[in-house]
């Protein structure tokens, strides 16, 4: 047996698998502008820093819920219910998000996953002996980031290719921050052991954005399915015009899910 999920060692990164809500990535100048008013919010939103309420728990499923508070309304002008369900079935974990708009009007938001996995999961095998595989994809591309503030430079893209679809994990892979893939490129991603057999696989069929990130030198790598992404550098528009923003009318519920298989 071995530990799969990162242990949140503060020496490297003190989180396990935060949910990113109501933004993914950063806001330009940390400013959210909506209907003429400006709010301030840190990277990845506030859900990950708040306590959720336990709604139900069974032998193989647990459901948590979070609503707006007086504090969140100072950062984000919408009322909402965020429900997160984790379901265990054999070697699979299903993560489900349901976001309901409780606002009297239209609501805008982004949401994303940020689970970190131990690579290597055990022993002293060098991380650079492991691989990534993105289903049957051999040709991908990721956008660049302004490393001073984490905003996107989508006009600058980098090809990411492998003739056999096996992508090595290299020492300097994350020197310029996360690899962010747009346009629904990633439907499935696996970590492979040095012998190229799978360690774990994430299935994320409908996600328009996906990121792979590591704090350089840390013994973990994050696989991040997203509905939304960081602001474009210099974006000063209304929150409703943000790249990747999701829209809900009053009373509507947004549903998304992804799964992780341990091989």
UniProtKB/TrEMBL annotation:
Transmembrane segments: none annotated. GO terms for biological process: carbohydrate metabolic process. GO terms for molecular function: carbohydrate binding; isomerase activity. It holds the Pfam family Aldose_epim. This is Aldose 1-epimerase family protein.
């Amino acid at each position: 047996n071995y530990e799969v999920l990162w242990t949140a060692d503060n020496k490297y990164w003190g989180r396990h698998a935060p949910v990113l809500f109501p933004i993914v990535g950063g806001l330009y100048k940390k400013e959210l502008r909506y209907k003429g008013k400006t709010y301030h919010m840190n990277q990845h939103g506030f859900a990950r820093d708040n306590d959720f309420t336990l709604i139900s728990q069974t032998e193989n499923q647990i459901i948590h819920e979070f609503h707006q508070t007086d504090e969140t309304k100072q950062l984000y002008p919408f009322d909402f219910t965020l429900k997160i369900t984790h379901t265990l079935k054999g070697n699979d974990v299903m993560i489900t998000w349901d976001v309901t708009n409780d606002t009297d009007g239209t609501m805008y938001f982004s949401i994303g996953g940020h689970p970190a996995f131990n690579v290597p999961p055990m022993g002293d095998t060098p991380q650079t002996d492991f691989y990534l595989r993105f289903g049957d994809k051999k040709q991908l591309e990721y956008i660049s980031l302004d490393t001073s503030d984490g905003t996107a430079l989508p006009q600058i893209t980098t090809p990411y290719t492998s003739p056999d679809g096996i992508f090595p994990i290299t020492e300097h892979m994350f020197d310029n921050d996360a690899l962010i893939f747009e346009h629904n490129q990633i439907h499935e991603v696996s970590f492979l052991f040095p012998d190229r057999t799978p360690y774990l696989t994430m299935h994320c069929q409908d996600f328009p954005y996906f990121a792979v990130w590591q704090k350089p030198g840390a013994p973990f790598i994050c696989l991040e399915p997203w509905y939304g992404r960081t602001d474009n550098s210099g974006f000063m528009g209304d929150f409703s015009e943000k790249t990747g923003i999701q829209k809900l009318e009053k009373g509507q519920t947004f549903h998304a899910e992804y799964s992780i298989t341990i091989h």
